[in-house]
């Protein structure tokens, strides 16, 4: 699969345009918290859009409705749908960062939000399994460009002394979006079934609601950037480039799913197919980076340790985000609503963990100390608490309080870890390479998100328990502890 959009040796070069990251508009420089707020809302709707899939599939399984409820292996199929979404999300990571470096990070953020809103609406309109998968894959391709451009804007326009705090505050929108997606979806489905008389199609209601919310946030973000940027906000060129990139990526992913459906491939074999797409994309990207002469900045030992270590973070994030409602419902024999409330403790912990982790890391930087010890400590504690959660599932009927406490405490340390790692990574490359740096970082890390839902679903169907999936997630995180310990951190000069 070739990339016609990237100017790094893999395709035709696009005309240069000043990046928003180099312009430093006055409002961003002096009042960066305004920027934080809009990006936070972008994360909220982005994560609500992607989180909704898990609770929707859980409702189909519980009510034997839709295109999931009547299958013989619903958990495995549901996990496979999640993996298809993240295959799309993964394949635009590097392209999004590279296009942001070329056309502007503001532009790519607005394009991502508009795309995600429209595709989430399309997901609700889907009439069957294949249509739903197509819409989810396209949603993932559009949302994949948000991450790298968001991280670059914060690092560029926030003073070093507050940088990790800013990364954490904005990323707390992830937890808010997860919480909203987990808690609101069952109620929105009930609303669709009751007030709107949607019956077996009630699963569409949260997709309609979240899609509209995403479009409203996209419009507000566009107005904010347009009023405060030092250059016009032009979306046409980056949108065309992203579409040109996404078409072959979407065709490859849909072909994989259709082949699996037509030939009756096991979920394991289909997941391996996603891994082949990932390997092909990484090969293309790495070859382009080497040809462009950027290997020293983007492919050195330190950044590869961070890239690889974050696979564990994405594995755990989307294991618990995708399946936590179903895990709690089965383990505690509770209703879907009660399970969603309990599972929300894990997502909600990020509202505290993200900014607090960033704040503590910034205090260390101001004192001339490194952030790596904090990252290692957070990874160790999460590993232990995730193991404790798995052990609690082995009980006959664990209490909802115990499960919620384990999820909350592990979530605090897990979420604090993420802005710390982001800030460490941002200091490992020059400003002009940061979009590409974060794009490649999340491209590599997203293999964890692609593999986690389907591997965990298969383990559940094979063993009859979610405990093996939890222990696997804890074991993967334990590997990241070793990788982060080997990173040679660069400590920035602290300025107020």
UniProtKB/TrEMBL annotation:
<feature type="transmembrane region" description="Helical">
    <location>
        <begin position="400"/>
        <end position="417"/>
    </location>
</feature>
<keyword id="KW-1133">Transmembrane helix</keyword>
<keyword id="KW-0472">Membrane</keyword>
<dbReference type="InterPro" id="IPR050382">
    <property type="entry name" value="MFS_Na/Anion_cotransporter"/>
</dbReference>
<dbReference type="InterPro" id="IPR036259">
    <property type="entry name" value="MFS_trans_sf"/>
</dbReference>
<feature type="transmembrane region" description="Helical">
    <location>
        <begin position="302"/>
        <end position="323"/>
    </location>
</feature>
<feature type="transmembrane region" description="Helical">
    <location>
        <begin position="112"/>
        <end position="138"/>
    </location>
</feature>
<dbReference type="InterPro" id="IPR024671">
    <property type="entry name" value="Atg22-like"/>
</dbReference>
<feature type="transmembrane region" description="Helical">
    <location>
        <begin position="271"/>
        <end position="290"/>
    </location>
</feature>
<feature type="transmembrane region" description="Helical">
    <location>
        <begin position="165"/>
        <end position="185"/>
    </location>
</feature>
<dbReference type="InterPro" id="IPR020846">
    <property type="entry name" value="MFS_dom"/>
</dbReference>
<feature type="transmembrane region" description="Helical">
    <location>
        <begin position="73"/>
        <end position="92"/>
    </location>
</feature>
<protein>
    <recommendedName>
        <fullName>Major facilitator superfamily (MFS) profile domain-containing protein</fullName>
    </recommendedName>
</protein>
<feature type="transmembrane region" description="Helical">
    <location>
        <begin position="373"/>
        <end position="394"/>
    </location>
</feature>
<feature type="domain" description="Major facilitator superfamily (MFS) profile">
    <location>
        <begin position="35"/>
        <end position="492"/>
    </location>
</feature>
<dbReference type="GO" id="GO:0022857">
    <property type="term" value="F:transmembrane transporter activity"/>
</dbReference>
<feature type="transmembrane region" description="Helical">
    <location>
        <begin position="205"/>
        <end position="225"/>
    </location>
</feature>
<feature type="transmembrane region" description="Helical">
    <location>
        <begin position="245"/>
        <end position="265"/>
    </location>
</feature>
<feature type="transmembrane region" description="Helical">
    <location>
        <begin position="35"/>
        <end position="61"/>
    </location>
</feature>
<feature type="transmembrane region" description="Helical">
    <location>
        <begin position="437"/>
        <end position="459"/>
    </location>
</feature>
<dbReference type="GO" id="GO:0005886">
    <property type="term" value="C:plasma membrane"/>
</dbReference>
<dbReference type="Pfam" id="PF11700">
    <property type="entry name" value="ATG22"/>
</dbReference>
<feature type="transmembrane region" description="Helical">
    <location>
        <begin position="343"/>
        <end position="361"/>
    </location>
</feature>
<feature type="transmembrane region" description="Helical">
    <location>
        <begin position="465"/>
        <end position="487"/>
    </location>
</feature>
<dbReference type="Pfam" id="PF07690">
    <property type="entry name" value="MFS_1"/>
</dbReference>
<dbReference type="InterPro" id="IPR011701">
    <property type="entry name" value="MFS"/>
</dbReference>
<feature type="region of interest" description="Disordered">
    <location>
        <begin position="1"/>
        <end position="23"/>
    </location>
</feature>
<keyword id="KW-0812">Transmembrane</keyword>
